[in-house]
Amino acid sequence: MAERIDMLRALMRAKGWDAVVVTGSDPHGSEYPAERWKQVEWLSGFTGEAGDLVVTLDHAGLWTDTRYFIQAERQLAGTGIVLHKTRVPEQVLIPEWLERQFGGEALIAVDGLCVGADFAQSLPGTVISVPDLLSPFWTDRPAIPQTPVFTVNPGERRREKLDWLRAFLRERECDGILLTALDEIAWLLNVRASDIEYNPLVISYLLVTQTDVCWYVLKGEVEDPESGATFSILEADGVRILPYADIDYLPSEASGRLFVDASTLNYQLYSSLTAAGVPLEEGTSPVGLRKAVKNMTEIGGMRDAHLQDGLAMERFLYWLELSVEGGREITEWDAAVKLGQLRADLPQYRGDSFETISAWGPGAALPHYVTPHAYAPVIREGGLYLCDSGGQYDFGTTDITRTVPLGRISALEREDYTLVLKGHIDLAMAIFPEGTPGCRLDALAREPLWRSKRNFGHGTGHGIGWFLGVHEGPQDIRQNLNPVPLQPGMIVSDEPGIYREGRHGVRHENLLLCIDAGQNEFGRWLAFEPLTLCHFETEALDLSLLDRSEIEWLNAYHERVYRTLSPQLPREIADWLREKTLAIQV
Question: What is the pTM of this model?
Answer without folding.
Answer: 0.93
